[in-house]
Specification:
Blueprint: E1 3-7, E2 11-12, E3 18-25, E4 34-39, E5 46-51, E6 58-60, E7 68-73, E8 78-83, E9 92-99, E10 110-113, E11 117-121
Parallel strand pairs: 2-11
Antiparallel strand pairs: 1-3, 3-8, 4-5, 4-9, 5-6, 7-8, 9-10, 9-11
């Protein structure tokens, strides 16, 4: 069965950096676009970034563009999110998801997601 397991979340000070990982299994990872999303307490799910099946193209939300970088290692079936210059407003549960095959990136449609990993940005 499809499994997505995130790791790497932590408490970090403003201006700090973190790298999140998402280990994928149960499907042919290199055939799918992958997504990072996040959800802050009391707020709706927010799309963060999408990456093509072979590592390109990439798309990133304006709110994190220039600070967050999505990447993947298809040999390891792993998705990454490098987050730099973190701000308190980045505090959220971050999750990875598998984009629905054939859907447009702009639709942000996913069929599987992980449980998420908590990122808290605070001094």
């Amino acid at each position: 069965q499809v499994q997505l397991v995130e790791s790497g979340g932590a408490l970090v000070q403003p201006g700090g950096s973190l790298t999140l990982s998402c280990a994928a299994s149960g499907f042919t990872f290199f055939n799918y676009y992958m997504i990072w999303g996040r959800q802050a307490p009391g707020k709706a799910v927010e799309w963060v970034s999408t990456i093509g099946s072979r590592g390109r193209p990439t798309y990133t939300a304006a709110s994190v563009k220039g600070r967050f970088t999505i990447s993947r290692d298809n040999a390891r079936n792993t998705l990454y999110l490098l987050m730099t210059d973190l701000k308190p407003e980045d505090t959220a549960l971050y999750f990875c998801a598998r984009q629905v095959a054939g859907s447009a990136v702009s639709e942000v449609k996913f069929d599987y997601r992980g449980q998420g990993t908590q990122v808290t940005v605070s001094s």
